[in-house]
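Exam review. A common question shows you a sequence with its structure tokens and asks you to describe the fold in words. Practice with the pair below. Do the first one on your own.
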Amino acid sequence: MVQTTAPISLATLSEGKKILHISGQVAMDRNGNTVGRSDIEVQAIQAMENIKTLVEEAGGTLADVCRIAVFVTSREYLSKVMEVRRRFFSEPFPATTTVVAAGLANPIGGRN
């Protein structure tokens, strides 16, 4: 099997579990305010906290997450985002697709 140093699994298997589909999460707090406008680490933490909250509200934990997609607008953000992911996930890491995109549908988001 191919080895990777990133916090990802190349494949995951979910047997007999519910599947929760979560829409894309951004650096928006519960009040709709964007946090960390110029700090990718703060933005990544907020997005992960949002995911954690949604999973827990559905009765799960982050250990139940099998797959995740990450979109960033610059390659320079990847190391910080991966560092934050290591704080939230442990082995076996979720299978992951990471995309560097020219922009996001809602680049500013939120109210402030």
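Now try the second one, then compare your answer with the model answer below.
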Amino acid sequence: MTGKTSAAVRAKQQRTHPFHNLEGLVKCVVLLVLISAEVRLDALGRTTAYAAHQSDTPSGAMASQLRPFTVADSIEMTKFVDPPEGAGVVTPRFSPDGTHFLLVTERGRLDSNVRDYSLSIWDAHQLTKAPEQIATFKTSSNRPGIVDAKWLDAEHITLIGENSREIPQVYLINCRSREIQKLTSDPGGVVAYDVSLNRKTVAYYALWSGDQEENQQKEERGFAIKNERLSDLVTGGWRRPPFAYEMYVMDLSTQNIRKVDVGPFQTHHLILSVSPDGKYVVTEQGPFFVPTEWQSYDNRWVKQLAREFQGGQAALRPFGLRQAMLVDAITAEISPLLDAPARLLGVTWASDSRTVYVTGTYLPLNSKVGDSAVLRSSTVLAEVAVPEKQFHLISATPIAEFWGFRRDNSSNAIVTDIFNEGETEIGLSAHVSSVEWRKQGNDWVRRHYLEKSRDVEIRLSESLEQWPRLVRIDPATNAQTTVYDPNPQLKTRRFGHAEVIHWLGKRGESLTGGLVYPAGYTRGKRYPLVIQTHGFSPDQFLVDGPFTTALAAQALANKGIVVLQIGDSPLHEQSEGKLDEGPVTQSQIESAVDYLDNSGVIQRENVGLVGFSATGFDVRNTLIHSKYHFAAATSAEGNDHGYWAYIADGNNGSWAAQSEAPYGGPPWNRNWQAWMDNSISFNYDKFHTPLRLESDGNDFGEVLNEWENFVALKRLHKPVELIYVSHGAHPVVKPWDRLTSQQGNVDWMTFWLNGEEDPDPAKAEQYARWRELRKLQETITTRQPAQHSHHSVANRSGLE
């Protein structure tokens, strides 16, 4: 379902994006500029090339000696995987005794189209000592080379690893002897795992291989369609539907493997937690049965999906609804831990393995442990006895928060980390605080958690203009000293200055974005603008944007283009799944153009838009409904809430329900008008902008999502192109796929906004194709009367 679900996908992709609360609608026609304390209006007047601020950048480095930053530079940067970049203030994973910490890094290789992953161990008390590289993996697939590396004890690390032409398996690494032991050999490949502290049990999920006997019968005799998507039928995915998994438990002493034999299920979220003694596993799966009562929970996604699947018992449990499950690791029997849905499960065990603590789950509505209104509206923190499944409510979770666990060695206390959370399925953002819960008798006492101080404070540090580095924090002065800079080569690259800007939307909403000026910006000169939609984080190094499909902020800045990376509007949460979703983003885009035009920075008639995934719809909706002029646009692997997409994937219940929501129901039963007026499907005649479409997840037939847009605009003789990447991910990750998407988009925007072509002979066919599209656009422009009177500002904008 790549690039499909607006709420869930956007939330998943933006786990590090801060949630901005709207404190009140400000109804004002004056564009009020809310500049942060360190950024003044005169910051609009940079006159020299800007290299990213790094404390150890040589003072003698001259702008003229710096090389322009390119997409290739971004692909070949070394990036932190663990601790993760873009997640705010994060620390590495320390060993239980606090003496060492691990780092996982990734680097793309354009020469071989692989990604190099490295696991290194650092001595926390000898930071000047070179780290020990204890494992490397090189992957040529869309999967990471190293996943979920974690300390099992002070001497052992476990992880999922994958090399080229292999499939991912669970590995156990002895940090002293450097012995690497492969624990699993699953033919489908492991996607999630956990190992018990006593190294007795490993529980894991693997891709479902499909029912081979049934598939053979279907191949030979045909079959009646049930829940298959059209793309599954076209690609053969019906043999093994995407994102379908089965669970296994393995006794490491006997090598005996048991399948949790209740059939496969589909999900984007997998969690496993094995008890310390290896006898039990808590996991999260699609429910075996959906009772009618689940429709009474307040959460709109739970309510909507419970209505869709009520009473259903499908052979392949579908996306959406989830439930906490308990597995007996000896017998591999599974049953619900709680008779209630879960949203984003968190799990930790007591040391005796007889009590498990869970967050992110609801409690049964017939529970006698709390107010019924609270049970309907809130997930909880609860303790559950195992195997009896008797539960005790510790605390309800505020609706706007998500609680996860952190490791703590106390026997009578648990620690929860609190994050801000949107109303969507898995949307969480910055860490807010940590809370210690200490048991006193039968009650739990809450108090602020004071992190145990270490002799050495190590963090991942980055900012809008500083690429991530590992730093040591001086406890007395809070000063940072660089411990490890993985990208010293960037000191020789030229970057456009980046800053946070604030403006008001047309509905009075407060908006935030990251503005990247062209490298070599000259004050008073107006530049083309590219707006990249959604996912801005003010604390994250703004090099491409939040994703690696199509977005390429600094590479565009080095082509003389201003780039604005916008964040989510405070109105987005209210508008998702409704007709107002498109207009909310349209307000962001139009008001940003007005603000930057009034600031004297941009050429307002020379603006490009880039949308990815959920905001592919927002870009296309703006092109149809806005009265502003846009010179070029890209919608990469995006949904469009259109009629064709609804029909193509409507056999999937969760997608059908979501697709109908913006229009108040299906496009029949006298409900055509809402679809005709608002759906992109019936408004292609309103497109007047060259549109680049990208289809990347084509192992799953995702090109079907772009097909209506491509064919409709082509039949209307409008400039459109569709880029097809056979085996791409969402977003793209392989080096050559990234080059196709990101560099292709840089070329697209510089062609339409700057009138420039890359002289590389390898791109000759590309530009020949685009020149033909430009002829089509010139024909449209000649036929089209002046659209909007306010565009008389062209002369003021520096345009002829």
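Model answer, second protein: Confidence is low (pLDDT under 50) at residues 1-61, 422-428, 786-800. The chain is about 20% helix and 30% strand. Full marks require stating both points clearly.
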